[in-house]
Specification:
two-stranded antiparallel sheet, seven-stranded mixed sheet, 2-enoyl-CoA Hydratase, Chain A, domain 1, disordered N terminus, alpha/beta
Length: 236
């Protein structure tokens, strides 16, 4: 490797690694900026314990978990920007990712574009500050399961406990009340073939589900401010 090829700060190997990261997992690290930011996109359906059809656009949680761990331990990464446009997916996988993000010391900001539906709601509120664009929406509904389900009381009890876990997480990480969230979840007058509610950008902020209405620029400005006003994670 020549000295000239190193002047830009990235070796050829690093550039190839970053290109592969973006292609496979929809992630990128911006280096020539005000602060070193890792961008993580959660798109399509969140794939958990079962492999989905190749026709589905998916975010695989086994790819996201090590990426989050890497961001948290990397001294050079100063903040995490999470872009969400998801229809939901595996409940336990999505909730696991949300818990990891909520427990990070790295400054985190989420931005909902398009939609943050179903288990995408806990993911949206898991960041330290959340944004939603005016045209985006969030669908809030009870836990559902595909495939064979045993028609026994224990199954209903399991669903109730899972729903309680999700509601507890969302209310702990946003300003919406439990009563309001349960009302939206069990609403029978809005969705034709389902129970639940569709909440658009401005309404999501009014309800306290999302912190602010804003754009990508607003989300980045908030993340920069957070970085500049947060004590460094590591001592020099």
């Amino acid at each position: 490797m020549t000295d000239e090829s190193k002047k830009g700060g990235n070796t050829a190997e690093e550039l190839l690694e970053e290109a592969e990261l973006a292609r496979e997992n929809g992630q990128s690290v911006t280096k020539n900026s005000r602060h070193l930011i890792h961008c993580l996109s959660v798109i399509g359906q969140i794939e958990g314990h079962y492999v989905l059809s190749e026709q589905n656009k998916t975010t695989k949680y086994e790819h996201i978990i090590p990426a989050l761990v890497a961001v948290e331990q990397d001294r050079s990464v100063e903040g995490l920007l999470i872009i969400l446009n998801t229809v939901g997916g595996d409940v336990e996988a999505g909730l696991a990712l949300a818990e990891i993000i909520a427990g990070m010391k790295t400054p985190t900001v989420s931005l909902v574009v398009g939609g943050g539906h179903s288990i995408g709601v806990p993911l949206a509120v898991s960041a330290k500050r959340s944004f939603i664009v005016p045209t985006a929406s969030m669908t809030i509904h009870p836990v559902r399961m595909n495939g064979t389900v045993l028609g026994v009381p224990q199954t209903l009890s399991y669903f109730d406990r899972m729903q309680d876990r999700i509601i507890s997480f969302v209310t702990r990480n946003s300003r919406i009340s439990e009563e309001e969230l349960r009302r939206l979840t069990m609403n029978t007058g809005e969705l034709v073939l389902d129970v639940g509610s569709v909440v658009e950008g401005k309404k999501a902020v009014e309800l306290g589900l999302i912190d602010s209405l804003g754009s990508l620029g607003d989300a980045l400005d908030s993340l920069y401010d957070m970085i500049e006003n947060t004590e460094k994670r590591y001592a020099d």
